[in-house]
## 1
Amino acid sequence: MSLKPSTPAPEGRRLLRLKEVRHRVGLQRSAIYLKIKHGEFPAPVHLGARAVAWPSDAIDAWIDSRIGIVASQPVRRSP
């Protein structure tokens, strides 16, 4: 029996496990889950009873949003 996706995945889109998510966003596990709890980070999808992963496009969008927030803030100059 072969498993075939019902629709082809967009190029470059994949599921990221926690280790890679931590590496990409620069946050520790506890900070990621706290942000999920407060609705500030994408929730993972369940792969099985004890396995979760994040869609790479959701993580990329979160990173882009953080860059946008920083870029929109005025630059503070020292006196």
## 2
Amino acid sequence: MQIMRDVLKGNGMNEERIVQLEILAAEQEKTIAELSGEIAEQWKVINKLQKKLDALINRFLELEEQAAPEIPVTKPPHW
């Protein structure tokens, strides 16, 4: 942010200000590329975790189904 404040000082557009703007733009481009790479890696991790979670949910439901006793369908006593 200091670079931006320095760039915005002064009234005339001179070569130094143009160079500072180009440096700022290059730094921002690099930061954006790095963040984009991080996001891509995080999506890979999220997808792996989602697959593991889905598998665990399915396994849990299978075990729950196996452990649950069969409840006979009977008429209530007042019938």
## 3
Amino acid sequence: MPGISRSFVSGVRIMNTEFRPGISDSRSRGALYGLYIGDALAMPVHWYYNREALSRDYGLVTDYLSPRNTHPDSILWRSSYKPLSEKGDILHEQATYWGRPGVHYHQFLQAGENTLNLKLCSELIKSLNEKGGYDGNDYLERYVAYMTTPGNHRDTYIEESHRHFFTNYARKLEPRKCGVPEKHIGGLVGLVPIVVFYQDQPEQARQAALEHLAWTHLGPSMEEAASLVMDVLLRVLGGEELKGVLVREIQAQRSPFLGYPFFTWLEEPDHVVVGRRFSTACYVDHSVPAVVYLALKYHQDPEMGLISNTNLGGDNAYRGAMLGALLGAANGIESFPPRWITGLIHPPPDLRRPGVISRHEADP
């Protein structure tokens, strides 16, 4: 992003004196922390499409900040959701803010807090840990309970995928049949814990991740986007360099999301590529290639990559979550500034991978 200088950000890197992770563990924790960091950093300026307004309201965002009302680009004034029955009530105390102008999507969250989709990732990690693997029925039970219980989260905005799911659930469809065709990048965040968990079993990782995706985000576009993200993440977690993986994928042209002149665009400012070449919106046909571009450009610099993504606006939270996961997997948890690690209000739960001693178990 033009105008961003490293003098704005800390060059200090984290060193955990209690537990020195091996390379594999560092990459795994880096992917999970990157997922949460990219979301939390962008949260206060999420869905700002007017970059002048973003800069006016927050300046250059380099740290966790609290959201402020009013939000100039908020669409809550024209958004509505009316549950068909008590089974579909997922807005709870936040319903009163829908239909009002200027309401911030995440108005009650604190600096360093994650949005709803990442809170659901924590529920997924708990399920993986307790079941010793992916159990779709268990996750769906947790998902329904979490969403229908007042007070579990304080997010005002709830994305369309959840609203459609619970509309169908209120119609008494089985939870496994409540998903609808979707195209938003927010649906990809749940893939990351599953891929990290099954990184030594690639086929099981793909099978479980696609099953998980289908609960809320059906359709070929989402499957194609998920396949690309999973393939890249699995190879990087396995030790390959992120840049090399992306270059080979672009050259192979196996994915419909890679048919762009990325190498030429690397010479252009970020706000031109993500803003003019690609929309900053949430749809995967542009948001996933935008993640690829940013990952390629900042493959060795997670801090600057996530700062640039945040200040580009649009769906920077879920674009940032996916970018953070890739950059964290490539560079390890040590590559993130300590302030971002310690500043997360609810960091990712410790994921207990099969046959791997967890950080908690390794502590004396």
